[in-house]
Each structure stands twice: as structure tokens, then as C-alpha cells.
Amino acid sequence: MEHALAALSELFEPMRLLALFTGMIAGMLFGMMPGLGGVAAVSIMLPFIFLFDAMGGLALLLGAIAVVYTSDTITSVMLGAPGSPASAPTAIEGHAMAKRGEASTALSVGFLSSMLGGLVGAVTLALAIPIAGPIVLALGTPELLMFALVGLYFASSMVGKDLAVGILAGCFGLLLGTIGPAPAAANFRFTFGQAYLLDGLSLTIVALGLFAIAEVIGMLAGGGGISSGRQVVSNWSTGFAVFWKHKWLALRGAIIGTFGGFVPAVGANASTWVAYGDAMRSAKDKSRFGKGEPRGIAAAEGANNATVISDLVPTLLFSVPGGPAAAIFLGALFSFGFYPGPRMVSEQPTLLYLIVWSVALASVVGAAICFAITPLMARLTRIRFALIAAPLLLIMVAGAYQSTQTLGDIAVLLVLGIVGWFMKHADWPRAPVLVGFVLAAPMEQYFWLSNQIHGWSWLVRPGVLIIAGLIVVPMLWKAVMARRRKLADAAAAIGLEPLLSAEDDGPRGTTTSRLMLAVLAVAVFAYAAFETSGFRANARLLPMLAIIPGLALSLFVLVREVRSFLTQRDAFIFDAWNEYPVAAMLLLYGIGIALVGLNLATLAFLLFVLVRFAGMRWITALIYTGVLIVGINGMFVLMRLTPPGGYFTSVNIF
């Protein structure tokens, strides 16, 4: 209680409250943008955490994390487009209710259930600190290394349907994390003679590129407005009554989401559908689901908010990110010199409780703000996304550039953005890449210390074997299920009624994105294997841990995709063809910044985007572009940076 009260006093320091509310507003805005969600919000806020002290910077991120799944209810209900994958059940039920004039009821149930889920997650986090603290203190570096491996495996195996692709993505993230200096040897790895890479890649750039840039490409190519019509929202009282009627269902969904958050990388997507399925199973009349059932909204919204907060439990206690947003938060902790696990539990209890208070306060205030702004948002649902994309891209560029203040920041941002865009269309999970990147540094440190202290005997420590079971048991279970599917297929082949249920293996054939990514993965891991041969022994350990399985799996995936192409050419798909020009346009924008500087390149880029994609007139587009350029230059002034200049010329405003 002493630490909890001290943390509350720390949080109510004016600048920290400002940081928390700024993060909340950002989280709400990105939560309302279909496809962006929490990862994009936290990624874009990450560069600004250093404008505050350590606790203020973390409060900024926590404000965004805590309200994303509250505000995305607006998009899901009003537009029928999930603000994030975890809001799909809300979109199904809520939009159906909105179509029959019950948008206010659906939104009320969603906001209140999200608030309840956030409070349950905060309470869980508070209780986990004193209960799990002694357990964490008993762990050594071998156990912490194994927890990191478990987190990476869970992220790779539970996000997406393809285990090989998931683990391959995790290995790619580990490989990205090894760029730069080796902590245990006098070696610089994978720098290609570029001074920019001597310090490795920035977490901000990796997160922005893989997630935010990739989503913006798709939305710009889609064109049009966010909605084809305008919704009217009024009369909240009915929604409050419906929520009260289903309050225990929302609480049950929050508890389900809490347990989902405890398991690294399960995330809100899985927890939400489990809670939604539980609500359907317990309903007397199941026929209403899918047609506008508020029970589905209550369960789903309670689960996703509880999950995203309880994701912080394994993050803070074991350095194992519960999800992509938690992985970014973990990176922020490292940036401020906080190391989750034994040191944080024993030395930073006030910080832990400040995190609890931040998410609890943000959950309550966020719901209240959503109630206040929803009528206004309902009037703006016909806005074209290009109007939002223009300032959004500028913020991303500014956020990336502040890392080292070189053009390399922007180049890596756009290249990773293209990679993330291909991964999105190939249905390759991006979360394992981010988790692997964040865990690379602590894994290498724990691995080296374990060998130095214990030799290889740490492999047979009881704690290590128990934690390893969290990887081995699921793998054995997947092998058993694969065997059952083969038996079912064999039974069907001889005309027997299959007694075992076989899962759908996904679409047959292949696509351009899958083929190109498979070829790229083989090339990357093969070159990395060649480059690693010249490293010192201690600098070679972690890269080889990523390269050996990564190269084997990339070859396996390439053979599989080529065979699918050769045997099922009729099913081959040239996917996302309409998005290629947008991706090329972004790359040209990056080249333009390198040649003529940020301001001139942005002038040409934004004018084209606003006229071509937003349908604005030239004079209006010119005024809007001027406002945005002045705004982004003002942001650079606040961050005490000079906008990037070009090789040939550069124009500065301030």
C-alpha cells in the first residue's frame, strides 16, 4: 500500500498527467482508424517519450495502450470495419445493431464493457506484483533466458495459422536485433560498412515500418471515405440499462481476457473470440448472434481491454512481451534503464504501481471521453482516409528521423514498411518479428551470462526443464493434431465418414507475396550465414540461433510455395496489384527527401496524395499541404531537431 500511494502521488505530477492524457488522445485516434490500432499508436508515440521524464514517458505509452480497444468500438459499430482484429465480434454485432437504429446501445455496452475490462486488468496487474514477486526473485539468468525463448515461441506459433512461417518470422526478428555491436565480443555485425548501422536499428523504426507504414499503403490504395453514410448517435440511457443487464457476462469476458494476457503472444485476438464463443455457448437463443446481439459486444469488449493490460504481467515480471504493444513498451523500459524481472520487483516497486494507476485511470477517463466525442465522430465518418494519411505519414517520418537524425532512419523505415506490407498480404505474422527484435538483446545477455556462470550445465537445471516444457508440450500437441488430420484425410480418401475433424489448411495455391517473401527469406538467411562465418565465437552465438532454423524453414517454405505454384497454377493470385503504385510512391517520396530535403519532397508528395486520393482541388490541397508542412516543422522545433536536408538542395521554414 505504501508503494501504491507513492506511485499515485508520482502520477499526479502535472507533466506526467499531461503525458498520460496525451497518450490517451493518441490511442483513441488510432483506435478509430481501421487497421491501425494499438501497435501503430504506441509506435508513433514512442519517439515522444523522451520529451518527458522516465515515468512520464511510460505514462504516455500506457495511456495509448489502455484506450485503444475502447475507442475502436466507435469504428466497429459505426462503420462495420473493425478498428483492430480483436474488435471483429464487436463489428459483427454492433454494426448490425447500428443498422437497425441501435448504435447508441451498442456503443454504450462497448464503452462500459471496455472500461470494466481495463479495471479488471489493472487489478490483476496490481495483485500479480506482490504474488509473483518472490517467484521472480528466485529466477536466475538461465530461467530468464528460457522465458524469453518461450515468449518468442508463443509469438511465433500462436499468431497466424502456419507454424513454420511464424517461427521463421521470429527468427527474422532475432536477426534484425543482432545488427550492430555484439555485447560479448569486439565485433560489429551486419553493418555493411555503413556507419548508420553501427548502433543497430531503432525499435521505433522497426515498429513503424512493419505495422503503420504497411497499413497506410493498403488504406490509401483503397481510396474513398471511411464510411459511405453518416450515423446519428443519441440517447445513451438504453445502453446503460443493457450493459447492467449483461454486467456479469462482461466481467466473465474480462476474466477470460486476463488469463489470455498471462500467456505471452495469445493476445486480444484469441481472448476476444474465446469470450465471444463463451457468450454464445451460454445464451439460450443462439440465433441472435451475428444479427446484432449486445451479449457478444459485452463479452468481446470486456476481454480485449483486459487482455491488453494483463499482457503487461509477463512483460514486467519475466521480460516476455505479452503482445506487440507490450513488446514496444518493453523496449521503452530498456531505453529508460529499467529491466523487468528481479531488479524491477526489488528496486522499482513504485514504478510498477504507477503503471497500474496509469492504466486504471486511462480506462475510466477514456470511456468517458469516448461517450463525449462519439456524436462528433458520427458526423465525420464520410471523411476520406487520404486526409488522415497525409499528416500521419509526416508524423511517422518525424518519429523515425529523430532516432539518429540521418537519412538512414527514413530509408530503413520505408524498406521495412514494404517488407511489412508484403508480410501482411502473404498472411505472414508480423508480431513475431517485433517480439524477436525486442528480445534479441536480453536473450544474448542471458545466454552469455548463463554460459559464463554455469557452463552448459544450466541446460539441466530443474527450472529450465520446466519452462522448456512450455515449448515442448505445445509442439507435441501440434504433432498429435497433425497426425489426427492425416488419419482423417486417409479415412475420407477411402470413402469413410471422417471421425476426426480436420482443420482448414487455408487457401490452396500461392500468391505473388508469398513467393517473393519466401525467396527474400532464403536470400537474407543465406547471406547472414555467410557473413556470420567471419564473426568471433561469442558474437556468432545469437545470430546462429536465428540463422540455422531460419534458413531451414525459409527453404522449406520456398519449396512448398514453388510446388503450389507448379501444381496449382489456376489458383495462383497476383495479390494487392492495386497497392503496388502506392508502395512505389512511398519509395519515391523517400528518394525525394534524400535529393531535395523533407520540405520540398513533402510538398510534391502531399499535393499528389491529396489531389489523387482525397479528391481535393489544387488550391485547397495547397493550403492543407502548407498547414501540414508548417506543423511538421513546428514538431521538429519542439524536438529540437533540424528537418532532413537533401543532397542537392534543402528548404527550411524555421
Descriptive notes:
- With 654 residues, the protein is an all-alpha fold.
- It has a domain at 2-442.
- It is built from 26 helices and two strands.
- The chain has helices at 2-11, 14-31, 37-45, 54-79, 88-99, 103-137, 141-158, 163-177, 203-222, 237-245, 247-262, 267-282, 294-310, 312-318, 324-335, 342-347, 349-379, 385-401, 407-426, 431-454, 462-493, 512-532, 537-567, 580-596, 598-612, 618-638; strands at 180-181, 188-189.
- A two-stranded antiparallel sheet has the order 1-2.
- A hairpin with a 6-residue loop joins β1 (180-181) and β2 (188-189).
- The longest helix is centred in the first third of the chain and has 35 residues, at 103-137.
- The chain is globular.
- It starts with a helix and ends in a 16-residue tail after the last helix.
- The relative contact order is 0.14.
- The model is unreliable at 495-507 (pLDDT under 50).
Spell out the key features of this protein.
654 residues; globular; 1% strand; two-stranded antiparallel ribbon; 73% helix; single chain; 2 strands; mainly alpha
Topology record:
Layout: H1 2-11, H2 14-31, H3 37-45, H4 54-79, H5 88-99, H6 103-137, H7 141-158, H8 163-177, E1 180-181, E2 188-189, H9 203-222, H10 237-245, H11 247-262, H12 267-282, H13 294-310, H14 312-318, H15 324-335, H16 342-347, H17 349-379, H18 385-401, H19 407-426, H20 431-454, H21 462-493, H22 512-532, H23 537-567, H24 580-596, H25 598-612, H26 618-638
Antiparallel strand pairs: 1-2
